[in-house]
Design a protein that fits this description.
By secondary structure, the protein is mainly beta. 9% of the residues lie in helices and 69% in strands. The protein has one domain: Porin (Beta Barrel), CATH 2.40.160.20. It has an eight-stranded antiparallel beta barrel with strand order 1-2-3-4-5-6-7-8.
Length: 197
Amino acid sequence: MKLNHTLFIILFFAPALLFGQNNSADRMQIKQFGIGMGIDFPSDGWSSMPRTTLMITYNINNLIRLEPEIGISIRNSKLDDDVSNSESVYSDYTVALSSYGIIRRSKTAFLIGVKFGYNSSKSEDFEYFSSKYLRTTKDLIIGPILGLEYFFNEHFSINGDLFFKYQSGNYKVTPFQYSGENKSFSTVGGLNLHFFF
């Protein structure tokens, strides 16, 4: 959660820092295609563990970027003691598309845009010699996203982003056979490395 607050402060002041730089001809030309890998840090309860993200970057021009991505998070934990023997498995999958406007100054760029996608998660709890508890959720996600990117050269960059995520969908719990609506708002901080070609 502290990381998300730090990213928000940095990204809030980024436009002023970028516009304060010299807008000269030494701006690096952005390559059109790239691939990237990152780590997301969600702040919401069920998926508050880091998520590995793979992305493809397509710079339509120096001002507009499209970025489809896939995010995966899996956790397995066991508890063995005199009171309880149990195992918990959590998995989370996200497919999303981000569309950015780019403000560039020298080797830095401020990204502002919107992300939308689909999220599916599953939480399984097993108690040995007893029952199995399973909760599944399927959500649509959407929200604004801010990013700050630094280019080491024309092929490599690193960027941090902050996604203000609204998600809406449904959840289902078995074997109790009840379901309901799932709506929430949270922030997701991200740290990404890109290779452009």
